[in-house]
Specification:
- The complex is a heterodimer.
- Chain A is an alpha/beta fold.
- Chain A is built from nine helices and 27 strands.
- In chain A, the strands form seven sheets. In chain A, strands 22, 23, 24, 25, 26 and 27 form a six-stranded antiparallel beta sheet that branches.
- In chain A, a hairpin with a 6-residue loop joins strand 24 (333-339) and strand 25.
- The radius of gyration of chain A is 22 Å and the shape is globular.
- The termini of chain A are far apart.
- Chain B starts with a strand and ends with a strand.
- Chain B has helices at 15-19, 43-52, and strands at residues 2-5, 24-26, 32-34, 58-61.
- Chain B is α+β, with helices and mostly antiparallel strands.
- Chain B is globular.
- Chain B has two helices and four strands, in the order βαββαβ.
- The chains are: A alpha/beta, B alpha+beta.
- The interface between A and B is medium-sized, with 27 and 17 residues.
Chain lengths: 405, 62
Amino acid sequence: MRLVVVGASLAGLRAAQAARAAGFEGKLTVVGDESHLPYTRPPLSKELLCGVQTPEQCALPHGSLDVQWRLGAAATGLDRAAHQVLLADGERIGYDRLVIATGCRARTWPGPELEGVVTLRDLDDALALRASLTSGARLLIVGAGFIGCEVAASARKRDVEVTVVDIAGQPMLPLGAELGARCARLHEEHGVDLRLGTGVSRLDLPQVELTDGTKLEADVVLMALGAIPNTEWLRDSGLELNPGVVCDATLTTTADPDVLAAGDLVSWPHPLARGELVRVEHWTVAAEHGQLAGRNALLARAERMPHDPPPYFWSDQYDVKIQAVGFPTAAERLEILELSPDGDRLVAVGAQDGQLVGVIAFNAAKRLAWYRRQLAGGPARMDQIRELVTADAGALGPPPVEVAG
Amino acid sequence: MKVHVDMNLCQSHGECVLVAPDVFDLGDDDVLVWQEDVPDDRRADMEAAVNACPMLAISIEE
């Protein structure tokens, strides 16, 4: 059997490793459009940007993995009838089973490319951005999501002047209003000029004009506008795209049992989201997906296992570690259930119809791990969680009771 | 085998705790504690822990 993995980042590497670990002895090819061997991306907006981690330290170890690497080779098409992946240089690679793991790319600013206006997705982006973030440089970040906020924190450590603009009324939208306001305070306390509820109307560096009429100057502009799945190469493949690659719970594409997918681009039904299709762009999901898809690809369809762990993600900003599990954005509202006496550590929970669906923690890793275990065992009733937390001596403490009037 | 965690890299994500709660744990201060000597029949679990760590902080020494 020939197994081909398209995408040489975390999900692709884990798929290849899992196939070998499961005893696959056939030909294994991993195709990647970047020239680099697989590396881990979370440090790109944090440790690498701050200069405390080198590119070499971002390399994902793959030991003695028996793989044929086809790097610097973008896939341009998939011919399912012929069981072949088409590469930009004209080569066709035959497969018996295929794992698609081409991930996402950064959403760019509409219009022509402008010098000094950049995005952050891969290692080369990060090294270029780092080189421009010298002390006293003026950085404008458009978008106050994960990447925008993490880069803001990293840039402040390098004594860069940072302005963050977002059309939303708060940073870190998935955290909800209350925790979002905490994030806003955090960035302002660290000297970030945070401009919410406003967008960019004109870019002519160093001149920038905001939609509220404000004029400011910037040397570098980072567009942190989210990510788009890299699925254009599959447009004529006949696979179901939404624009992610639509799969069943076992990460098998809905159109073809010989084709599976893993990582940021997968749209699959998740039990914690009531079986609705979700697409999740988190490190741990890519790792879990890759591992599962690599194993499942070797099996007959009926023997394949589903991916059902609650998604976990994190963000580091200054001295705050934000961690979350499940689908906090699906909750009817987020409620702080635990708060340390000094107010610096907390756990917020979100429920849907009385069931716990998502948890967010600030500087509370052990607590978050506890909630993660509760979510891993299937649906957890919110009233039960509340009782368990109240009785738990290890909990951070109850939030202050609001007195009416 | 010996399990090594680089505590300069560890950020207490707790992935390893999920994989092998009898070997890894988070203390009340959120700092990772772990058992360094692990029987060889746990190799698959330890390799899973190595792969699960987002900070690439775990390694196995023979």
